[in-house]
Design brief:
It is a single chain. By secondary structure, this protein is α+β, with helices and mostly antiparallel strands. The chain folds into three domains: 201 residues, Aldehyde Oxidoreductase, domain 3; 349 residues, Aldehyde Oxidoreductase, domain 4, CATH 3.30.365; 143 residues, Aldehyde oxidase/xanthine dehydrogenase, molybdopterin binding domain (Aldehyde Oxidoreductase, domain 4), CATH 3.30.365.10. It has 18 helices and 33 strands. The radius of gyration is 27 Å and the shape is globular. The model has no long low-confidence stretch (mean pLDDT 97). The site of dioxothiomolybdenum(VI) ion has 10 residues, from loops.
Amino acid sequence: MAHYIGTPTSRVDGFAKVTGAAKYAAEFNVPGLVYGSVVTSTIAKGRIARIDLSAALRVEGVLDVLTHENRPTMADNDQAYKDDVAPAGSPFRPLYDGRIMFSGQPIALVVAQTSEIARFAASLVRVDYETDTHITDVHCQREAAIPLKPPGDPIEAMFTPPKTRGRPEQALAAAAVRHAGEYYVPIEHHNPMELFASTVIYDGDGKLTVYDKTQGVQNVQHYLCRVFGMKPEDVRVMSPFVGGAFGSGLRPQFQVVLAVLAARALRRSVRVVLTRPQMYVLGYRPAMIQLIELGANADGTLDAIMHDAITVTSRYEDFFRQETGWSGLLYKCANAGYKHKLARLDLATPCDMRAPSATTALFALESAMDELAVALNLDPLELRLRCYSERDQHNDLPFSSKALRECYRQGATAFGWDKRNPEARSMRDAGDLVGWGMATGVWEALQMPITVRIALSANGHAEVACATSDIGTGSYTIMAQVAADMLGLPLENISINLGDSSLPQSPVEGGSWIAASVSNGIATTADAIRDELLRLAKQMPGSPLANIASGEVTLADGKLISKGDASRSVSITDAMRHAAVDRIEQEKTYNPSNDVTRAHNTHSAIFAEVKVDEQIGVIRVTRVVSAIAAGRILNTKTASSQILGGVVWGIGMALHEETLIDHKVGRIMNANIAEYHVPVNADIHDIKVIFVDEPDDSNPLGIKGLGEIGIVGVAAAIANAVYHATGKRVRDLPITLDKLRL
Ligand code: MOS
């Protein structure tokens, strides 16, 4: 029955992408389109005292310059600006007033006949500021960091640190072997390839079609309706293709607000494309200072875990995630304690970035576990096995499935871990020091309610519609695979319609939850299609499916077939033609079971090899094996790509990535992809991805999702390999030459 599910199906949108037929937000054209260019603040905190537009307005081709002083009306309450995933606080309102809350804040939009004219004129806007003192260095806010408030709503409750377990202080004091270390992860940025952009098509009667780069078209639509007091039927948000987002597109970003403001002010179609530097205030992975304390028994079992974290947020919103909770979840340990504080800085609010909180927390935890293994004189993999937990340690729940042991086993075998000499600096390859390190990864297996519509034609073609996004992860492809299997049709007979707010309800594409949600949504609706087809088939004279119950037939090879007797079947075409029906349409909502009796997680084991040039300290990550347990894998090709991308990003996190702020002026200094270093081809060598078998019944299709698990733990595995190679422990990312000092 599973013809396509589980196969390495190539992307169904691949041809459109490589030929340029796939259009992105900045590529939709309409006659009379005009262009907006954003002017941003050069101070980090204060007020605009005076803004002089005269020089900009004198440029030929400039149509208007919008500022907080002359913009059209927008909502004046926080609630209107709270998108579906907003943290607690008072969301940023672009061009709302003259207050400056971060450097790079949008303060004006120049609209002109061409983007070049707009950009030139934007350079002529003159601004005088009244400046306040700013703080942008998390290290200066350590003492002033504030504990998380008690949760005000269910979303905050989800991210509040778990309750203390046992007596961690006493257990730590009594432990036979202790390790304490402070770990630091700097601010990092998403840097998707596609620039953030919005093209707003203004049609005569004031209705808007908004092509936006977003991970959630309906989130943007709801937001625009509230901010501009528009009716839902007057705003349609489309995002058929997204060139990467990684969390930066979860919240509506300011370019869409500015483009809509301008379209409404000028009553014409407007495009706003951000520059790469302007994208550095859209959100970022918050920097995190983490103190990890571990107490172990002499036999290598854990007895105490303490995890204190300070993360960065803005002055106006409290962004945080489950930063400390991962430590208490992963390993068997009777005593655990957590503290989580927020350091308020004069920066834009951080946001989710691929496996938010787990990526940063597991760097610290898995580095600390490696250090504990050294202190215990134990193989790091053996330590993980001795601390292996069969239950969620927070809530003492079983896992719906947890094949992490198998990840360790298969990953270690593929890597050749048993040949590791435990001694640091003991392995060499010609002039290079060789290091082998490993780490564990963990993420959540979430699902969300979602609605899917399927329209089946009598010729055996089906159109699947859902407002979800494909941010490059491969949603189009897995949706087509699942629909083809569930409807018993060839893959090429399926068309997928997504990224359109007018389609059936979908959550934002995030949290790795779309694959499980939309696939089961398709299955749910396909069942309704099957039932309707059966009803029609039963009406045929002498129907071979008369008296058969709906659960006893399946759709395969273009036919309704009795499960018990494959000789009893009716083709889709015959059933529909006989009933004189051209099209069957069903729309159903999948509501995932709220199974709180078990924990639902994905896991990974990462093994990394580094070679370090002893003369100059250059680190190369020569091999990585990532073994993943993530339930049923829908598409081994796109799934491998997801994990591969996560590993590449983990290499970036370990060795390259760091957003640098000049704290004197409170401004990001490397807001571009020349100076914000990411791995390039020359940095990437042998990466092997293994999916271990992990049957799971958390949802009918057994899917867990894997958009995020691929990055978790990778930086720790590399840092641990660097220690093994060099004997130097770097707890402060990225691991650059200066920190290694060989
Ligand atoms: Mo993801 S960081 O929820 O896009």
